[in-house]
Amino acid sequence: MTQSNRKNWDTYFMDIACMVSTRSRCTRRHVGAVLVQGKKLLGTAYNGAPMGVPDCSEAGCMVSEQYEMELVDGTETMVKKQRCIRTIHAEQNLLLFTDRSDREGSTVYVTDEPCWTCANMLANSGVVEIVYYRPYRKDMEKVRSMMASQGIVFRPLESYEPPQETMITIKD
């Protein structure tokens, strides 16, 4: 690969997040996250059950249903949301296994737009930017609004093509 064909930093770090996601054993969604400060990789994580606990591929998903009021076409509507609660999300694992001092002023690359809980945790973690590949529609509007109010750069990686070997079918 010549210098002119070299991947840009966003693609490089998102490719790493996608590769990290292949460690996940969740049957619904593989998510990977990486912590970057400047151009230095400081940590990686993926979604999965706590260490020593059967994961989704062994024990099945532990789906929780919750209802939430949302504005749909100008009307308040009660919407049912299903979430697997067996796994610790990639962003949560990233925060558990990195130091606060490393997170200050850093960027998180994550394969999927963070859910509400992960967005709250990231907003309080010291990171200044979150870059993601796939949207997560269940919490999209409130997450984006909160990130804007906190001054955290929150951006999708437009026109990104993940490495083919990292792709799975997502079950929402």
TrEMBL record:
Protein name, UniProt field: CMP deaminase
GO cellular component, as recorded: cytoplasm
Active site positions, chain numbering: 91
Keywords assigned by UniProt, alphabetized: Hydrolase, Metal-binding, Zinc
Region forming the signal peptide: none
Cofactor: Zn(2+)
Pfam family name, one: dCMP_cyt_deam_1
GO term, biological process aspect, one: pyrimidine nucleotide metabolic process
Protein family according to the UniProt entry: Belongs to the cytidine and deoxycytidylate deaminase family.
Residue ranges of every copy of the CMP/dCMP-type deaminase domain listed in the record: 8-154
One GO MF term attached to the UniProt entry: dCMP deaminase activity
Keyword Metal-binding attached: yes
Ligand binding (Zn(2+)): 89, 115, 118
InterPro entries, per database record: APOBEC/CMP_deaminase_Zn-bd, CMP_dCMP_dom, Cytidine_deaminase-like, dCMP_deaminase, dCMP_deaminase-rel, Deoxycytidylate_deaminase_dom
